[in-house]
Each structure stands twice: as structure tokens, then as C-alpha cells.
């Protein structure tokens, strides 16, 4: 079977893990610090914090939206909506609920499978506490256009909602040449085993400013300042936090895998470019849109196909793993109260499917995938 996912673990990871073992520092020790420093250099944003998984990073991000923190103006009553799409990993939407906020679904653009910015612009109101978007499959949302929509909303309502970008699929994605994590928003990344960059499990949050960065560093560990004098118990916790720290073994994997991730990313993109050529014009199949300056990480390769179930059967029989990947979240019972018609997603949901595109595909593999699809289903 040609797989959809594979763990990208550098052979150097084992040696770095052995160094952690012999150091005796396992949790938030120097290896986590070194990993964060390396991430700052690569991402280009000094305000970032490593955490134990991407879901934790989402919970921190939504905490910032729900609760402005000690000493800040409280969130006005009734400003409790997060505009979000149901086409994402459940973690993003459940972090909204965990913080006492409500979901207001925004439609999905059937061309890109990402948030429909026209529908978003219609739904922003004084009740909007935050906007939660995902660079789905690695394809970037047009953050420049979003910023103009927010300028208009701010002029109209006197309030600019916090934007949370889920970059879990989008390690290395750039928009008009600028890497994600640098657009003035709160961003989260996942270093789960199957993501481009992996720590086994791990994650990171990037922040737009020093104040949010300092706050997140406290919230990540129960609200306790790590520099406090705990020997004499002379410390105060200004606001309660979580236990979301990364451990040093995970950070050692992350450091090792930073050395291989660029080459892997290059191969995802090369395979995607190959499919773009080979699959264009195939009957019963449509590629997703590609806009200039939108440089996807192609963590997944999305397709729209007619008779999707037959397509999936044919591919599976041919030894090629394919997936629908997620169920649209608005159909889950847990969030049934938020359901609204979403014509864009309704129209394309039955055609969505993903095929293998990763660094592990040989030239023969990808040629076989393209040939199998071109033969029809
Ligand atoms: C992987 C993923 C996350 C985070 O997952 P963790 O396993 O908690 O690291 C968040 N959002 C999306 C879209 C993901 O694919």
C-alpha cells in the first residue's frame, strides 16, 4: 500500500535523545530552550512558545480570545462568538467550547477548502470575539485580504477580533513570500508524529507581541513564573494556567528533525507539482485552486472527484491509500446547536478526497498513482 502518512524521523534523533537521558533534565530543560531558539530562527518570529501538542496551543490561543487577562479591560458581555469553519481537526473547534465561547460556522470556499472570506465578512459583528481559521492541507488563507476585512469591521464596530491561525498542516507555507507565523496573529503549529516537523507529540504557539508572549509563558505552566523563588514559597499566581509544557525528549526529536524537514517539504511540493501536471483535465476530477503567491506546504494533496466512493474503492484496490480525512465538524452531535446551512461546503463535501503526496513517494509511486487515476474509476 502506498501510504498517506509516514513519520519523518531523522536518524540523528536517537543520539540527541541519549544526550537528554544522560543530562537528567527531562521537562522544560535546556533542550526545550534550544529547540525554541532554533524555531525562532527558522520561523522568524521571536515571540513563540513550545507546548506539549497542537491542541494545547489551540487552548492557549482561545484563552487569549476569551479572557483578556488580569489588569486588562474585560471582554464585554455578548462578545462570545468565534467565527470558524467545520472543515478542520476537531481540536480547533473544541478549544472554543472549552473557553466558554460559542461557534458560529463560516462557509468553506469550494475552490480551496479554506474559510470563505466573503461569508466571514458578512458574519463579523460586535459579538465576534475571535476568528479561527486553518491553512487546510497547507494551503494559505489570504491573510492580507482578511486584514482588510478586519480594518472595515474595526471601523464599523470599534473592535478588532483576535485571529487564530491553525498552521498544523502548514509548516513552511508562505503567503506572498512571507512565512506563516509572521502576520500579526496568534498561530498554532503541531509537531504530531505525522506532521511535516515532528517531536512525536508537540506543538508551538506564535504570538504577535511581547505581552501575549509573556502571558502564554505563564499560562503554559499553571501561571507560575519559572524564575520565582519557590524554595521560600514567595511567589504569586496572578491567573491560573495549565500544564502544557514540552518535554526535552520531544524537543530533542524536534531539533534533529529540523535538519530534514526542508528536504521533505521540497519533495511534498515536487510531488504536488507533478500531480498538478498529470491530473489536469482528467474527466470527473477537479484540482483545488492555486492563487499566485500562495505557496502551500502540501501536507495533503486534495482533490474533488465525481463518484468519490467508487474512486476510493478503485484506489484502495490498486494499493493506494486515500482518505476523506475528517468529518465536517458541524455534523457532530456535540455541536449540533450551532448548525446552519453552508452552501459552499454542502456542494463540495461529497467530492473531497486526499491522495498520497509525501516525501516517501518514489518517482515510480507517483507515476503509478497518476496512471491509476487517469485510467478512470
Ligand atoms: C494535527 C492537528 C492539530 C493538532 O493536533 P495535536 O495532535 O494536538 O498536535 C490541530 N489542527 C489541525 C488541523 C491538525 O491537523
Automatic annotation (TrEMBL):
Its cofactor is pyridoxal 5'-phosphate. One of its GO terms (molecular function) is transaminase activity. It comes from the Bacteria. It holds the Pfam family DegT_DnrJ_EryC1. The active site is at residue 195. GO terms for biological process: polysaccharide biosynthetic process. The keyword Transferase applies. Keywords: Aminotransferase, Pyridoxal phosphate, Transferase. This is Aminotransferase DegT. It comes from Phytohabitans houttuyneae.
